[in-house]
Amino acid sequence: MSDGKRKEAIALKYNEDHHDAPKVIAKGKGLIAEDIINSAGEHDIPVYEDQALVELMSELNINETIPEDLYQAVAEVFAFIYQLDKKYEKS
Predict the structure, then answer these.
(1) Is the separation of the CB atoms in 26 and 10 below 8 Å?
(2) What whole-number distance in Å separates Cα of residue 36 and Cα of residue 9?
(3) Is residue 1 domain-resident?
(4) pLDDT tens-digit profile of 9-66?
(5) Which domain holds residue 60?
(6) Interior/surface letters 19-28, b for 16+ CB within 10 angstroms, e for the rest
(7) What angle do CA 57, 61, 62 make, to 5 degrees?
(8) Is residue 23 part of a domain?
(9) Vertex 14, ends 11 and 70: CA angle to 5°?
(10) Based on the structure, what is the number of domains in the chain?
(11) Considering the domain boundaries, does residue 78 fall inside one?
């Protein structure tokens, strides 16, 4: 059963050697969002679901770095990914 909302997805990239902050590398709704999520799965890239954060970041353009006011929220996403990486390394 669907709640009537279209799926949304935003892909971030961060390389501390090259970027001051994470930047948006892809975003979309509906089928494009599904493609982003499927592509992440195909490349073993973790997916973190947070509708409120997606709504905040949906105003950003592709190749735009996230603004300072979103640093804390995005840091939580990267902490989640870091924990997954550590868990994966142990198995």
Answers:
(1) yes
(2) 7
(3) no
(4) 999 998 888 888 899 999 999 999 999 999 999 998 889 899 999 999 999 999 999 9
(5) 8-90
(6) eeebbbebbb
(7) 105
(8) yes
(9) 70
(10) 1
(11) yes
